[in-house]
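Quick note —
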Amino acid sequence: MWVWQLVLAVGFGIGSAVVPVLNAEAYVLGVGVSGALDPVVAAVGVSVGQTIGKIVMFLAVRYRPGYAGKKSKEPKPLDLGTRWGRLRQWNRELSKRLLDALSDRRWGVPVTLLSASVGIPPLYGVALIAGASRMGVVTFSLSVLAGRLARFVTLALGVGLF
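Predicted structure written out below.
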């Protein structure tokens, strides 16, 4: 009986990893509140599905066409006198810092774990930037799975108390 629940949750997890409108937390909460499915099985399934979806995003960035032969070019200059120019400059600096952190062995796993378990920085962006970094696919996968399991199982156990 729990196998179909797990398959359904994995499918929803994959979808919610790629399509941000599908909320995995709402799924786990809904399953727990309705009592129709086991919330812990749903949490594990959603965690596995989200990990699969984030790995697909990671690999899509890592192995996109033309990435290996891409030459580094200078970014276009920005007009820092405008609000839009300052916002774009801030975004460039933040992305560079995150890319450097994910490429570093000391910071790559903690940043990914924090993102997967707490959501800061958002895991969607971390998955994309990690694909462009030097982080290994296995390291990324295990970090995302551990963080997602911690997040969703804690949520499922909390709902199970009611």
